[in-house]
Amino acid sequence: MSLHPDVSAVTDRIIARSKPTRDAYLALIRRERDQHIERPTLGCANLAHGYAGTEEDRDAMKAGRGMNIGIVTSYNDMLSAHATYYRYPEQMKVWAREAGATAQVAGGVPAMCDGVTQGYPGMELSLFSRDTIALSTAIALSHGMFEGAALLGICDKIVPGLLMGALRFGHLPMILIPGGPMRSGLPNKEKAAVREQFAEGKASREDLLDAEIAAYHSKGTCTFYGTANSNQMMMEIMGLHMPGAAFANPGTKLRQELTRAAVHRLAEIGWNGDQYRPLGECVDEKAIVNGAIGLLATGGSTNHLLHLPAIAAAAGIVIDWEDFDRLSKAVPLIARVYPNGAADVNAFEDAGGMPWVISELLGAGLLHRDLKTVGGSDMTTYAKRPSIEGEALVWGDPGASGDDSILRAPSAPFAAEGGFRILTGNLGRACIKVSAVERDRWTIEAPARVFSDQAAVQAAFKAGELDRDVVVVVRFQGPRANGMPELHKLTPPLGVLQNRGFRVALVTDGRMSGASGKVPCAIHASPEALGGGPLARVRDGDVIRMSADTGDLVALVDEVEWNARLPAEAPPAAEGMGRELFSLFRASANEAEKGASAVMAAMGW
């Protein structure tokens, strides 16, 4: 089927807008390919330093006949998703030798977890950990010792950060290697119910901890469809994984063989062969559009409204929220995965997973087919489902949806549109995800209650001060103010208020969560309150209209009075927990729609 005209139009819009920066980027990676410091040009002392730590592969490296693969890893054993990578480097070295290549750990990147830091000071480092990861990736690849790279990362900021750094070495072939989701534990809906009971004082801390541990119980990503699993979906639909790699569980033969295949494939797509796949050419305008379409079609994380623009910028591509909005009107919602449904990612995978989604979107003309993917000739390679037959890894037809309560064809979707909207008005420009919000709550008009941190919201909730129709405004949460933390701790109390029958909404210049759910939330509001953005003018009692139906984000205040108001003063910058170390990032960050990134802002793209 031919490409949907709206998808084609958005792609053309992005290509035209990006031409100067994309041309500059492609020129950069061509220069790097021709002139970059590489192993054959390094001095003998330099090479000796690079070879000294690896006696087993030293002779092969010295001979220089095969690719040396740099492994950039996010391994740590405090976080379940990254703990899976413990044995990967030693296994990958063996698999590289099978393919006539060698591999070395080029470096590590930090991997922090929003799930651990939610509601605490460490969360204010979270978003800028992405920039730190980008810088760490660049350092890891800066030695000129590698002809390709394997990027081991999976969770919220890690995959975007790896790509942002790796794309500055876009002349190298690279493959992202996921670790997979943990097996299903306590269902997400039951876990959320215990959280709400605890918020109301109906469950003890012990009850809550037991429920959380039953949900998050082993190695692998969390099983809800938050930012981590949205990352894996996006890498798959952009053609940057081995086909079908996104959601195979850790510790399985399938997961092992997919990783082995990725190492072998890297050895095949180097610059000395006829299948050369430089990362910077793989991540083009069409790949970025595919990533956006995947987010909309599956109800993915709102955090990628920051991450995808930042990834795109690293490759000289400019994408904005209007592109998402236009695509959302053309792309139907074809997946229901928690928090947009009851199923977790394991049930999503069992129902057909990414091979089924990609096959259906290709068949409906809603996805670019002609990408330069790492895994094959084009995106049709990713419409095949991997399995183990005997000892061999094979790919076959994904078949029909295994459960139409989880996956439905584009011709009979859960919703005709992708559930993303831009909101505009005298409160600035924000975005809202409505795929899990009941239609009768798409428009909320109620008096504001204004806060400067989420702890104050929780205190007001516990005191009964929010038991009414209310628009909760949480400001001074933008990237320049405090690093744009997620406000996920607000989900249970706001959900309780909604369950009590009140009409409730959230407006913030901060982030909400990859697990944004049933409460309507206008997030990433720009310009942010710090520096005089419009949220700084809101006062308690102002009636706010927030409507995904009409695209309004308006304080219903007389225009003369509104313009005469002085912006509220921001609270002083917090110290401790290392936050002061990130003041340079906060001061330099660009706006949310451009990715809320200091390193991308510094490049001027």
Automatic annotation (TrEMBL):
List the PROSITE patterns: ILVD_EDD_1 (PS00886), ILVD_EDD_2 (PS00887)
Keyword Iron part of the UniProt annotation: yes
Which sites bind [4Fe-4S] cluster? 155, 222
This entry's Enzyme Commission designation comes to 4.2.1.12
Q: Which SUPFAM superfamilies match?
A: IlvD/EDD N-terminal domain-like (SSF143975), LeuD/IlvD-like (SSF52016)
Q: Is Hydrolase there in the keyword field?
A: no
- Keywords, ordered alphabetically: 4Fe-4S, Carbohydrate metabolism, Gluconate utilization, Iron, Iron-sulfur, Lyase, Metal-binding
Q: Name what cofactor the protein needs.
A: [4Fe-4S] cluster
A Pfam family that the UniProt record links to this protein: ILVD_EDD_N
Top enzyme class, one word, equals lyase
Pathway per its UniProt entry is: Carbohydrate metabolism; Entner-Doudoroff pathway
**The Dihydroxy-acid/6-phosphogluconate dehydratase C-terminal domain, residue ranges:** 406-596
Q: Which PANTHER family match?
A: D-XYLONATE DEHYDRATASE, PHOSPHOGLUCONATE DEHYDRATASE
What protein name is recorded for this chain?
Answer: Phosphogluconate dehydratase
